[in-house]
Amino acid sequence: xxxxxxxxxxxxLLLDATSGVTDITEKMHRTIARDANPLYRLxxxxxxxxxxxxxxxTYRVIQSTTYVLKQGLHYSLSRFxxxxxxxxxxxSMRVVAALNGVCGDHLEASNNPLAINMNxxxxxxxxxxxxxxxxxxxxxxxxPRIVVLVHGLCLSHEYWKGHNEGNLGTELQSAHGFTPLYxxxxxxxxxxxxxKELSEQLQKLVEAWPVEVEELTLIGHSMGGLVIRxxxxxxxxxxxxxTKLLRNALYLGSPHHGSPVAKAGHMLTFLxxxxxxxxxxxxxxxxxxxIKDLRHGNLLDDDWDGIDQDDFHPDGRKPVPLREGTxxxxxxxxxGKRVSNIPSTMMGDLxxxxxxxxxxxxxxxxxxxxxxxxxRVFEKLNHLDLLDNKVVHDQILEWLx
Length: 401
Hints:
CATH class of the largest domain: Alpha Beta
Strand content: 5-15%
Domain GPI inositol-deacylase PGAP1-like alpha/beta: 146-273
CATH topology of the largest domain: Rossmann fold
Largest sheet: 8 strands, mixed
GO molecular function, one term: hydrolase activity
CATH architecture of the largest domain: 3-Layer(aba) Sandwich
Keywords: Hydrolase
InterPro entries: AB_hydrolase_fold (IPR029058), PGAP1-ab_dom-like (IPR012908)
Number of domains: 2
Structural class: alpha/beta
Protein name: Alpha/beta hydrolase
């Protein structure tokens, strides 16, 4: 059965898409008409022709109708969406997570109920709310050792449950006495926005924890690793106490210096924008802020503020060093049978290249100083294999022993 929240959010997103397609169609129509009719420019200067006025009116009617429908939808369903307790099944949660990765910043800006609000989950998938009075009930037998697992782009806390091998969080609980928590967040937002919010949430968590926290460990997959580094930066800038409890940070296939997929997508969008006929179809402009941040691996507001991320511009990131006092571990994957061969070097795990996952960079100020024993590269694995592969889990268990 479809929940009211899902129905509300899906309908609102569909109407937003209708508005966007109408805008693209109108732009293409005007561009083609301008070239097909030599008199169009004169008519455009002197005022629209009767035919053009009629077409212009048609587009405005569609946009106005869409707007009215959205407002009516929001007014009629929003109260039911807010009161609904747990609207998502495991499968629908994965679909919503993917939507948040692609257009999560738009969902948040448009107050769409499909936008994910950052929250912690326990091993059963229940929300853990530091500000509530039932924290002890949602984390029974809370340990002084906390591990927080942070998923990557278009994923959710559900993906840590494991497709094949097992649950990394519960393995750490059984082997080393950690209490595992799983972060769920909107991956379409800027990485820095999620980093700042995670920093604040971690502070609330350690303050409200049922027992005194002795040790905090953060594990991030893909974008999750960048969110962790951003949170460490903002937490250290504000001198928040949780940062002094952070003993370990682990990065699984994190694109510390960007992803080639994001770079290729940006290049395609940039080239399409140079041609009038295809410029309206450069849909890469409408992808989320989180995806655009992955072009270079932006961690801070300064890395994107005041910059048109759809334009071609060099890597102007502010160098963010690894937090001192914390042990940092890096895991990378390569699809090839040997790490040293060309497919492994060039393609990495298909989404992140090896040099980016290991923090290597030609610029010394951006290169991440990693001890040899704190970095592992696994062969014949892809990007998502890092979440639930036994050899990866065994390495993490060994490091955190």
